[in-house]
User: What shape does this take?
Amino acid sequence: MTNFAAPRTIGFIGSGHIGSTLARLAVDHGYDVVLSNSRGPETLSGLVEELGPRARAATAEEAASAGDVVVVTIPLKNYRQVPVAPLDGKVVIDTNNYYPQRDGNFPELDAEETTTSELLQAHLPGSFVVKAFNHIHFKDLASQGTPAGTPGRRALAIAGNSEDARRVAAALIEDFGFDVVDAGALSEGWRYQRDTEAYVDRYDAEGLRHALAQAKRYRDA
Assistant: This one.
């Protein structure tokens, strides 16, 4: 069992549509954010200015070091560029999806021998990877959060090998305005990957649990 302190700072490796949207939500809910991308901190000056004093830009290594929780939100093909040492012992939220036309082909994914987040977990053996935020469009992420208890509140899924890490990710998702459905171990993340029933479509918690249960492997679809 690992006891994680409640995060105060969220690091971002990648600051595209999902990353910048999550950073806005984080700042709006009282978190500090440290943003990075592949092009250098200077290219994030406009976003940092927009987000205000709780945000700063840094290198990927600095964002990984600064974050109590770190969000990896980059094209899957670049996952081996994620810094390893500064993420040791930390919760890492993985938003990745596999798009062969963008990422090239990964034979182990094509054969469904593993999942995207398990690849990242293997790259980060000392970290606690949780798959989250990969099955919602960034515009919906920005606009569809509602207070706890709202009828029909949208739900998002999580998967990870550490129950405590899943609990940290779930708390953030709840903060950002969504219910949480725990899919279990990281290997179950395929249930809400690209082109599954749960992918992108809006569900409340009951509906999402049903969609996850109905998921079919690509080879069976």
User: Anything to note?
Assistant: The chain has a mean pLDDT of 97.
